[in-house]
Design a protein that fits this description.
Strand content: 5-15%
Structural class: alpha/beta
Shape: elongated
Strand order of the largest sheet: 2-1-3-4
CATH topology of the largest domain: Rossmann fold
Low-confidence stretches: 108-114
Oligomer: single chain
Number of strands: 8
CATH class of the largest domain: Alpha Beta
């Protein structure tokens, strides 16, 4: 098994996201992952380089290192280790420097700086909106939503709403379609004024049963028959009402959210 390191002088989220996207292109390989955020001084960089060297000795092959370290000295210390360094920022900075005719910032505290306070606050507002309007708990402000996700229990509504809020600043609510709502192809009363904002999620009965069994094993809620019925009935409801929907069975929350944004034409906000 090969070791993989994700390094950053900040949270390491960028290094992880890009690194995982690249590694996903090589299916069937196993990796031992180490995420090391806040590598922001010389001593920490030396310690990380030593950890990479130990992993190289243990694995018998050089580790892969995804880095977004901003400080040139820290990058150099890690580059001198026995890992394969993939510098995810500086692979592109020289090209951009030539094109923009400007020097990049080198100070680590500015590499992930907060560019726009208003946009940041808008994202926090979207997250709070998603939490307040989770699982149909509060429906009075649906007129203020960008999107209302609907679907049967455990079809992925909550994580998708939170991802839409966190990554895109979209105010997304979600409403559960229960067994009582199914069978007559009639929307719950709270949703009827907002058909144009509705987007449905569905999944395979087998996947739904697996998720529900982990939550409530042996229950009618998790039975194969109940899962098949709910999936078939909710998809019939979507079709009857002309509601766009997406099967989430084999999709990650990132892909679900991105497809919804693409299909609905909702405005993506950058941060």
């Amino acid at each position: 098994m090969r070791s993989v390191f994700f390094l950053s002088n900040r949270t390491a989220i960028t290094a992880e996201t890009l690194g995982h996207s690249l590694l996903a292109q090589f299916g069937g390989l196993d990796f031992r992952e180490f995420t090391i955020p806040y590598v922001d001084n010389r001593d920490l960089a030396i310690s990380v380089a030593e950890q990479i060297n130990r992993a190289a000795a243990q694995d018998g092959i050089r580790p892969i290192v995804f880095s977004t370290l901003a400080d040139p000295e820290l990058r150099s210390l890690v580059a001198n280790s026995q890992g394969l360094l993939l510098d995810l920022f500086h692979a592109f900075l020289n090209i951009l420097e030539a094109e923009l005719q400007a020097k990049p910032l080198e100070r680590g505290e500015y590499s992930h700086r907060l560019v726009d306070v208003h946009k940041y606050e808008s994202r926090m507002d979207a997250i709070n909106f998603a939490l307040l309007h989770d699982d149909g708990a509060y429906t009075r402000q649906y007129d203020q939503s960008d999107l209302i996700l609907i679907g049967v229990s455990r079809s992925g509504k909550t994580p998708t709403c939170l991802y839409l809020a966190l990554q895109f600043g979209i105010r997304a609510a979600n409403y559960p379609i229960t067994e009582e709502d199914l069978g007559g192809n009639v929307l719950p009363r709270a949703l009827r004024p907002y058909v144009n904002k509705l987007y449905g999620l569905t999944t395979s009965p087998e996947r739904l049963q697996s998720i529900r069994t982990a939550r409530r094993p042996g229950s009618r809620y998790a039975s194969p028959e109940q899962c098949r019925y709910e999936v078939q009935a909710v998809e019939a409801l979507y079709r009857a009402k002309g509601i766009r929907f997406l099967n989430t069975t084999t999709r990650s929350v990132e892909e679900i959210a991105t497809r919804i944004v693409q299909e609905t034409g909702l405005q993506r906000h950058s941060y």
